[in-house]
Amino acid sequence: YLSTIPEGPPDAILGIAESFKSCTDPNKVNVCVGAYRDSSGKPWILPSVRKAEERMLKDDTVNKEYAPIAGDGRYVELALRFAYGNEMDLGSVAGVQSLSGTGACRIGGHFFARFAPKPKGLDRLPIYIPNPTWGNHIQIFKECGLDVQRYRYYDSKTNALDYDGLIADLKEAPDGSVILLHSCAHNPTGCDPTLQQWKDISDLIKEKSHHVFFDSAYQGFASGDAEADAAALRLFVKEGHNIVLAQSFAKNFGLYGERTGTLSVVCNTPEERSAVMSQLKLIIRPMYSSPPIHGSSIVKTVLEDEELTKEYYANCEEMADRIGSMRRRLVEVLKEVGSTHDWSHVTSQIGMFAFTGMSSDMCDELTSKYSIFLTRDGRISLAGLNEGNIEYVAKAIHDVTDG
Ligand code: LMR
């Protein structure tokens, strides 16, 4: 049977990252994957993370035993504090450690598919995800058995949030659907609702008895301040939603390969919490038994220590600042190299990406002619830019857009 198996398509993001690796052009540029690079284009281990690892190495109580199915409880507690804030009573929040954001989305997707009631007349629970969204969302929720639907999110004519479209589509969705929201720094558009719009979205979701699934992959990257970036999800909790939250520490702690995250469900009582915890464990155990412990120990060591936490916040701000300055520089240099195109949307966007508005043909040309690797939706990871390559990239963009 093996000879009958067809070749599968490469992944829309990680497949391009693989092509970048095998490209031999000395001028090649990787602005594909959302992974931070320092000003010389190198991956960066946060100094606070490095210090935490040094402490762990010297700590003879650290061992390599299995974590419990739900992960390291102390880590989960600190991680949830980071997301929900100091005011939050965590006594009714069911939280488990996850394999970063993807793993959290997967556990949450299975949880919804198993337990949330299907809207009347439907045989599968619909999940509405933004259009566009992080490409992997689609496959993850399909694999969970959910019916993946889209809501309008971005208007490519105005290069801004399609707020009216979003509201119309959430109204149109059958009552009791799951609504996936990016809690900040929307990937790929870099466009978030305002706080007032979040409040109105929250009211509408309540009216429609929809379920809220927040994906938080960029807390700290939108503004540089992790507290400020949690405003939307904290607002929903305050408004009484039983949110489900997928939390990733890949970007904001630079722990990409450590697969460190959480999945949590805001319940109404400690009894509900206990039942939900037991079910989350039943989802996890046959999937991968228990999570890896190195990344979670790092996050725990940092967040448990006041000084390391302070240093961590400064490290996170440093990354956000460098990305912000590359955002402004890209628009500046585009003008310098002669582009007359209006790029102002790039500077009004936030987070790790510039959603440029380039067509897939233009993206293909950037890759084939200039060895600049980006996703075919026109998304550029600003973290991949630095003073050494920004002019090369700007000239190439000018060539494929105005040339
Ligand atoms: C991205 O959007 O580039 C990242 O989240 C990496 C990934 O796993 O796709």
Automatic annotation (TrEMBL):
Signal is among the record's keywords: yes
EC number: 2.6.1.1
Pfam families for the chain: Aminotran_1_2
Source organism, top-level taxon: Eukaryota
Keywords of the record: Aminotransferase, Pyridoxal phosphate, Signal, Transferase
Broadest EC class assigned to this enzyme: transferase
CDD domains listed in its UniProt record: AAT_like
Annotated Aminotransferase class I/classII large domain residues: 27-397
Coiled coil: none
GO molecular function: L-aspartate:2-oxoglutarate aminotransferase activity
PANTHER family: ASPARTATE AMINOTRANSFERASE, ASPARTATE AMINOTRANSFERASE, MITOCHONDRIAL
Subunit structure: Homodimer.
Family stated for the protein in its record: Belongs to the class-I pyridoxal-phosphate-dependent aminotransferase family.
The name this protein goes by in its record: aspartate transaminase
Native organism taxonomy: Eukaryota, Sar, Stramenopiles, Ochrophyta, Bacillariophyta
